[in-house]
Predict the 3D structure of the following.
Amino acid sequence: MIGLNYSHCPQAKSWVDGSEGHSEFPIQNLPFGIFSPSGSDLPRGGIAIGDFVLDVAAMADLLPPAAGKTARQADAPSLNGLFALGNEAMRALRLALFDLLADAKHEAAVRPHLHAAADCQMHLPFAIGDYTDFYAGIHHAENIGRQFRPENPLLPNYKFVPIGYHGRSSSIRPSGVNVVRPQGQSRGPGMEVPRFGPTGRLDYELEMAVWIGTGNTLGKPISIGKAADHIAGLSLLNDWSARDVQAWEYQPLGPLLSKNFHTTVSPWVVTTCALAPFRMAQPTRPDGDPAPLPYLNDAADQGHGAFSVSIEVAIQTERMRAEGKAAERISKGSMAAMYWTVAQLVTHHTVGGCNLRPGDLLGTGTLSGEDRTSWGSLAELTEGGKMPIQLSNGEKRTFLEDGDEIVMTAHAEQDGCVPIGFGECRARIVRG
Ligand code: MN
């Protein structure tokens, strides 16, 4: 398989306590993020290993010269400069850090720069210049489309063009930051004029985040064969949505206030390199579907441009917290729900000449599977608010209430591989 090396070996282990068999961050992962150690207000780049965060720039002098030079770029409050060096440099840095963490002879020199993750504050991994949210989850598009057009859920463009809209980057926050229930206009059935007030139909959307490493020049599109080289890695993304506001405002130009109040991302970037063993063929399109147009069609991308990643949503209500109950899973799906590969999203975004920049963010769109257990939003699970879901303590939900906390998790899994996790994408709804 492409891009495999000894860092992916299932037998690999680290001297870091508790990292072996860690459900999220074994040595086979080593995701990058921006953290502040306890007592410091200087955010900087780190990698996660077990329940610890390693200060990457502090490793520079211990690494081979080229990797050391790369590592110094991690001494910054965002990963933009680091990942702008490109996936080859990042692959070499990840391998060099792997060597330090695998061989116990480095323990004495490295250990002072390991910080307990529980004591660290995590920040956004990148300074995000631009954010675009796609709609690549075909079952989600069908489920939502069916609520509006039962006979014809998918519009005729869906299978030709990766649908998306330009989102808002200023309101993206890392996991853990509360979401203030937004206000807006909505017009329910039978209402003559819209009402204004706090949304009554607040929803989450389970998505993956695609981070851009190296960008492209204005007017010079990224070809489909080269798109993977521009992807730094993946995280989780929750595209919070006010459905009542959305229904009233979205025609003719798409969502605006229904989406721009807050977006949550998980703070760890699982790199393209760490994901190499989890690549898989893009699922075959159903008979009768058109082939992607040539600019989006690449044999290598179709052969291994998808990822074997399972994704889950859990909810913890105020009452569950008071009763000491853990968050309860409400759906489990996978990235195989994508009708387009992440490379196709990147290529399509640039094909008209648009330039992507390091740290730009693409959301995949809500990833719902075929059956109900894998639907990635409440709009789908409750059929537009008509059928409440029931939680195990008897509580019911159509949409989110104040105090509800949504926790998204994801794991890359493949036979013969050590699974790796993405950490949490968690946030709680509060009244403004
Ligand atoms: Mn979305």
Q: What stands out?
A: DSSP finds eleven helices and 27 strands in the chain. The longest strand covers residues 231-238. The chain has two domains: 13-123, 131-430. The longest helix spans residues 87-102.
